[in-house]
Amino acid sequence: MSMPKGANVPVPARPLRVEFARRTNPGAPRTEVHALLLADSRADVVTPGRAHPSRGVRHEGGRAVDGERVDGLLVDLTVVEPGVDRIVLVASADGGTFGQLAVRVRLTDPVAGGELASFECADATVESALVLGELYRRAGQWRFRAVGQGYDTGLDGLAADFGISANALVPPEPQAAPEPASAPPAALAQPLSPPAPPVRLAKVTLTKDAPSVSLTKQGGTSGAMRVNLNWQTRQQPKGWLRKAGLVGSHSTAIDLDLCALYELTDGTRGVVQALGNAFGALNRPPYIQLDGDDRTGAVDSGENLTINLDHQRAFRRILVFVTIYEGARSFAGLHATTTLTPRDGAPIEFFLDECTVPSTVCALALISNEGGELVVRREARYLVPRPGVSPQRTVDQAYGWGMNWTPGRKH
C-alpha cells in the first residue's frame, strides 16, 4: 500500500521488516539508516550492523538489489520493551543531500509475506538527514507513520533535537580480532540517559490550496504549542497610509491583540484575550494562556498564545483570531505571519493575504477535534463589524460561538 507523507496505518504486533532503498547513482552520497527507540527517560540508538538489548530491533545491514542499495531492519514488536512507545527510522547522507537520491521505505511481513506499506520521499532537496518514518503505539496498537521530513544541518541537527550526541549515530569501527564464539551475534546499543525531546521537522506552510494539517498525523499532540503572530507595516507613501486608515493626524503605533475563542468537550465556552485581563491558564481549563500584550509586532516577539496539548482531549475547537486595538482602522497594508509551533512535529505557518475591506478583526486559524484527530485549518478571514458591534462579537457570530459579551478594557 503506497502512503502519502503524513499518513499512518495500523500494523500487526509481530516481527516486521523495514527496508530503506535508494539508487546508487555515480556521485551519489553515501547513506546510512538508523533506528531510535524512544522511551520517557532515554533514547536508544541502533546503528548499522548492531542490535538493541531487547532484540526488538536489529540492523541487518545493506545489500545491492537491481541498482539500488537496500538496508534492512528487523523489528520484532512482540519483544520491544513496554516503555518504548516510538521507533523512529532516520537516515543520513555523507557527501551530498537526499535531493540527489530517490528514497523509498517499505514495511513488509517476513512471516506471512507481502508488503504492509510503502512510502516514497520524493520532495527532498537540501536535507542531509531525514526522519523517514516511525512505528508508534496508540491506544495499545502499533501504527506506522510516513514522515519524510529532514534537516539541512545533517546528523548534528537531528541528534540535537533528539537530545543525543551525533557520535551515537556513527557505527563503531570493526574490531580486528574476531569475537569469541560465545559472544552474542551483535553488540548492544548503549542506552542514553537524557530524555528524548521532540523532533523539530521542516516547516509546514498552509495556503489557500492546502489549508489544513493534522497535528495528530504529525505527532504533535502533547506538550505546549506556541501560537505566534508578528506583523509589520509595509512601506508606503504617508498619504496612502492615511487613506487606508493606517495613520491619523497623530500617528500611533499599531497595536494588534491575539485572542482565542475556545469550546471544551464539556460544553464550556470562553475567550482568552488581553481585553478584560482574560489571559487564561495552562494547567487548568481552558488550558490556553496569552503570554502578554505586545505592541510592536516584532518577529522575535509579537503576540503569543500557548496551548497545552497534554489536555487536547478537552478541546472541541479553538478559534485563534486577531483584533486591531488601536493605531489603525483596517488591516490594509499590514504584512502578518502566523506560526504554530508544537513541541513535537513540524512548525506550521501561514501568511495573511492583502486586506481589501475595512476589517478590524481577522480569524486566523481553527483548531478542531475531528473524530479524535486534532486538525489545524488556516482561516485568514477578514471580517467587517457592523456599526456598534465589537470585533469579538463579530467573530463570535461568524463562527457560531453564542457567547454574551460586555464592554471591557485593557489595564
TrEMBL record:
Transmembrane segments: none annotated. Residues 170-194 are annotated as: Disordered. Gene3D superfamilies: sav2460 like domains (2.60.60.30). Residues 51-162 form the TerD domain. InterPro entries: Stress/Tellurium_Resist, Tellurite_resistance_TerA, TerD. Residues 171-183 have a biased composition (Pro residues). Belongs to the CAPAB/TerDEXZ family. This is TerD domain-containing protein.
